[in-house]
UniProtKB/TrEMBL annotation:
Residues 1-45 are annotated as: Disordered. The keyword Protein transport applies. PANTHER family: NUCLEOTIDE EXCHANGE FACTOR SIL1, PROTEIN FOLDING REGULATOR. It comes from Tachuris rubrigastra. This is SIL1 factor. Residues 16-35 have a biased composition (Basic and acidic residues). The lineage of its organism: Eukaryota, Metazoa, Chordata, Craniata, Vertebrata.
Length: 149
C-alpha cells in the first residue's frame, strides 16, 4: 500500500506487519508528552490502529494479527503443495548438518556450529585455569560470534 512521502515506516516484529505513521507536526515544535502518547501507528496492510506505547494489545488486535499469520501460513503451505518440485530441488542442493558432520568425521575433521564454539569460549572465559590473555582472546572471539547473531 502506498504511503505519503516523509512517513515513518517500520516492521512490527510482533505481528509481522509493516506500519506507517505520518510525520510529526509540520510547524517544527515538538509534541507534548500527551500528544506523543496518543500517536498511533496504522498497519499498512489494514491491521488498524495499534498503540505503540501500550504494553498490551486489545483482544481484537491480537485476533487480527493471529488471523493474518494463519493466512500467510496457509498460503505458504498451498505454494508448497502446488510446487513440490521446487522444494525437492532445494533439498537436493543442501544436505542435513548431521550428514555433513559424519562426512567431516570420516576425513578426521571436526565440524562445530557457532553455538558449540560460543559455549566453549564462554567456558574458557569462566575457567579459573585460563590466563588473562586467554580470557581476553575468548572475549574477542565471542564478540565476533555474537556480532554475527
Amino acid at each position: 500500500q502506498a504511503v505519503p512521502a516523509g512517513s515513518h515506516v517500520r516492521l512490527n516484529l510482533q505481528t509481522g506487519e509493516r506500519e506507517a505513521k505520518l510525520p510529526d507536526s509540520e510547524n517544527g515544535r515538538s509534541d507534548t508528552r500527551e500528544e506523543r502518547r496518543r500517536k498511533r501507528y496504522r498497519g499498512a496492510a489494514g491491521l488498524g490502529k495499534v498503540d505503540v506505547d501500550a504494553n498490551s494489545f486489545t483482544s481484537q488486535e491480537l485476533k487480527k494479527a493471529l488471523a493474518k499469520m494463519k493466512e500467510s501460513e496457509k498460503a505458504e503451505r498451498k505454494v508448497r503443495r502446488e510446487f513440490p518440485a521446487q522444494e525437492e530441488e532445494v533439498r537436493k542442493k543442501f544436505r542435513p548438518i548431521e550428514q555433513l558432520k559424519e562426512e567431516f568425521e570420516k576425513m578426521n575433521m571436526k565440524m562445530e556450529t557457532d553455538y558449540e564454539i560460543m559455549v566453549k569460549l564462554i567456558s574458557k572465559f569462566n575457567s579459573s585455569a585460563s590466563t588473562l590473555d586467554e580470557k581476553v582472546a575468548a572475549l574477542y572471539d565471542l564478540e565476533y560470534y555474537v556480532h554475527q547473531v
